[in-house]
Amino acid sequence: MPHGANDQVTLLPRRGAPAPGPLALATALLAGCGGAQSALNPQGPVAASLAQTWWILFAGSAVILSLVVALALYAVFRAPDRRGHVRPGTLIVGGGVVFPVVVLSALLLYGFHVSGTTRPPGAEAALRVEVVGHQWWWEIRYEGEGAVTANEIHIPVGRTVEMRVTSADVIHSFWVPSLAGKIDMMPGSTNVQWLRADRPGVFRGQCAEFCGAQHARMALLVIAEPEADFERWRAHQRRDAVAPATAERTQGFAAFAKLGCPECHTVRGLAPGGRVGPDLTHVARRYTLAGATLGNNRPTLAAWVADAPAFKPGTRMPSFRHVDAKTRASLVAFLEGLE
């Protein structure tokens, strides 16, 4: 079973603690510009063009701000001069009309140029992946192959991927900052985005549109890997699940059926039909659980099965605390066997 990253714990300030100073606040804000999910750390051509746009806008804004501050300081501290002055009308027309028109026109033309780079060469022959947003997880379908997974998208390095995104409930937004920009996911409508990874790696994504109580815990991973590794993974995903090979896992499969799990979850080859929750056919091969917020290991899986609402209040999956520990353990063993 693959193991995900360690779960992150956010420490809140204790009650009565002193308020953070300006330096601490500035440090916290700047920390959000880096890390595992940063639009300024592009790993593909689409993200690179967007990052370049950001830096150009930042540099232009810095220049304009510097000019405004310099003019303000000049106006405040210059010596009085009652001789000839520039007429106010000239300043208004030059600074309030001509300058904005020139700057905005240049930005518009540059924007048209950047929009053309968001469709990489070879997009017509791209690998097509359908992504369906749910509260609060991602359904991943590889077009025409029957391969279905959840919360983790595997793609080959150097190959353009066409993401066809939609929503099954409310408005979501698909965003993998290191590979592409944001795109809305609308119920009843399909939007298209292209992305490509230039190197192998695991890139974190996030729903970028508030979609309910667990919006912050609706993440995903994009795993970019060499073509050969991707093809092996894809071939395995097409296969049906293997029947339980041990007594404990057989008992777990019986518990899976008795507790009504197939009403929501599909295990192809064993318990097909459920579409409310994630496809579990090869869940043991995933790095994460619960919308890419928990590592996929035995203790975490056992805790999630026992009481999912404790991790994600509002989730549709019920608590199974009322089920005896032995039955839950066999159910976990069954899920661990779904490789």
Description:
Subunits I and II form the functional core of the enzyme complex. Electrons originating in cytochrome c are transferred via heme a and Cu(A) to the binuclear center formed by heme a3 and Cu(B). The chain crosses the membrane at residues 54-77, 89-112. Its main location: membrane. It is a multi-pass membrane protein. Residues 124-236 form the Cytochrome oxidase subunit II copper A binding domain. The chain is of the alpha+beta class. It has three domains: 45-74 and 87-117, no CATH class; 123-237, Cupredoxins -  blue copper proteins (Immunoglobulin-like, Sandwich), CATH 2.60.40.420; 247-336, Cupredoxins -  blue copper proteins (Immunoglobulin-like). It contains eight helices and twelve strands. It has a five-stranded mixed β-sheet with strand order 3-2-1-5-8. Strand 2 (137-142) and strand 3 (147-150) form a beta hairpin. Helix 6 (298-306) packs across helix 8. The longest helix has 33 residues, at 45-77. It is elongated, with a radius of gyration of 26 Å. The chain starts with 21 loop residues before the first helix and ends with a helix. Mean pLDDT is 83; it is low at 3-20 and 22-34.
Short description:
By secondary structure, the protein is an alpha+beta fold. It is 36% helix and 18% strand.
Can you give the helix content as a percent range? 25-40%
Mean pLDDT: 83
Spatially, the strands of the biggest sheet line up as 3-2-1-5-8
CATH topology of the largest domain: Immunoglobulin-like
Which word captures the global form?
elongated
Rg measurement, Å: 26 Å
CATH class of the largest domain: Mainly Beta
What is the H/E string?
A: HHHEEEEEEEEEEHHEEHHH
User: What percentage of amino acids are in beta strands?
Assistant: 15-25%
Q: How many domains make up the coordinates?
A: 3
* Sheet with most strands: 5 strands, mixed
Count, helices: 8
CATH H level of the largest domain: which superfamily?
Cupredoxins -  blue copper proteins
List low-confidence stretches.
3-20, 22-34
Which architecture of the largest domain would the CATH scheme give at its second level? Sandwich
Distance between the termini: 8 Å
Total strands: the figure is: 12
Judged by helices, strands and strand pairing, the structural class is alpha+beta
EC number: 7.1.1.9
Keywords: Copper, Electron transport, Heme, Iron, Membrane, Metal-binding, Respiratory chain, Translocase, Transmembrane, Transmembrane helix, Transport
Membrane topology: Multi-pass membrane protein
Subcellular location: Membrane
